[in-house]
Amino acid sequence: MIKVKGYAAQNAKSNLGPWNFQRREVGSHDIQFDILYCGVCHSDLHQVRDEWGNSIFPMVPGHELVGKVIKVGEHVKKFKVNDLVGVGCLVDSCRTCDNCKEGLEQFCSNGNSMTYNGYEQDKKTPTYGGYSNTFVVNEDFVLRVSEKLNLPAVAPLLCAGITTYSPLRHWKVGKGHKLGVVGLGGLGHMAVKFGVAFGAEVTVLSSSPSKKVDALKLGAHKFVVTSNENQFKSVMGYFDFIIDTVSAKHDYNSYLSLLKTNGTHICVGAPAMPSDFSAFGLIMGRKSLAGSLIGGIAETQEMLDFCAEHNIVSEIELIDIKDINTAYERMLKSDVKYRFVIDIATL
Ligand code: NAP
Ligand code: ZN
Ligand code: ZN
């Protein structure tokens, strides 16, 4: 077994702190890479605090990993030592169900293996994520990372990037569409970048008036403060699509009124608490309320290649691992510009 240094939560009430554990030896189809940077997703916080009610402890969070390959198994074809690689939210799946065959491993019918807070395909070995110094994974779940981009700023593409890219591609959002992005955090700021890159007119809908300057700098065309009634009313019936990245319970009904006829509200934010909604908000205008979960492996590679071609990365604050608990507190106050990334050298 390989000795690993990490940071873990021991239970839902504890802060994260140092914890050593082991990973499997590098198998014939595995690669081992040293993690250089790991992004901090709001899903890490939800799961560390067991807000979704499915947490497995001890938990080593982190599903936005980038690093350098240090070892490859004898049958590995796609990677070699020193390659730059990434791992997102998935480390394995059954590979045989209809969803896996279609490249939708995130919806594997037999249960995929999430990068942390999950189990390997043996359904009993816990997975541990990227707040750690080294990683072992089957090569089929490894992404190729361009040398052209700023590496720490690539890490968040592995979750925040694909989670916004995938639905915008699925619903073919682009030229001629008006897109609303609710919440300007890790996911939200990537949705702005992709929406703009795909040619849509992008409006940020935010609860933080202070984020206006940044939103426009990121390429957004308009900014609406959601608590300002006049501003909110000014975009009634305006959007073809809304992508909703809000992490806390909120009222979906009011956003449905901002959609045009046939408009779609796409939920990617995953608040722990359910919300009520009225069917009338959908009936009046033939609207859709939809959702989307990360993206499959092939599409994640497509997104990374698109980012390399168009010079798209995340806006980040690089932090030391010892500051992770403070970073979580700041994330809860919507005070992230716009993704924390851990410098794993500080572990
Ligand atoms: P984040 O960086 O914390 O951003 C969330 C943003 O939501 C905040 O910056 C804030 O934006 C807004 N917000 C937060 N609390 C709010 C409140 N009480 N009322 C209104 N707005 C509020 O989080 P993230 O990493 O982007 O993740 C966002 C959500 O997506 C989380 O629930 C996460 O678990 C989920 N997620 C889902 C997937 C998926 O596959 N579907 C993947 C990754 C993450 P403003 O300041 O602009 O209002
Ligand atoms: Zn995530
Ligand atoms: Zn499957």
Order of helices and strands: EEEHEEEHEEEHHEHEHEHEHEHEHEHE
Q: Would you identify the regions where 5 or more consecutive residues have pLDDT less than 50? A: none
Strand residue percentage: 25-35%
What shape does the CA trace take? Answer: globular
Residue share in helix: 10-25%
Average pLDDT taken over every residue: 98
The total beta strand count reads: 17
Q: What oligomeric state best describes the polypeptide chains here?
A: single chain
How far apart, in Å, are the first and last alpha carbons? 20 Å
| Molecules bound to protein | NADP nicotinamide-adenine-dinucleotide phosphate, zinc ion
Based on helices, strands and strand pairing, what is the structural class? alpha/beta
How much is the radius of gyration in Å?
20 Å
How would you describe this structure in keywords?
11 helices, 347 residues, binds NADP nicotinamide-adenine-dinucleotide phosphate, binds zinc ion
What does this structure look like?
The protein has 347 residues and is an alpha/beta fold. It contains eleven helices and 17 strands. Helix 4 packs across helix 5 and helix 4 crosses helix 10. The longest helix is centred in the last third of the chain and has 14 residues. It is globular and about 60 Å long. The protein starts with a strand and ends with a strand. 45% of the residues are buried.
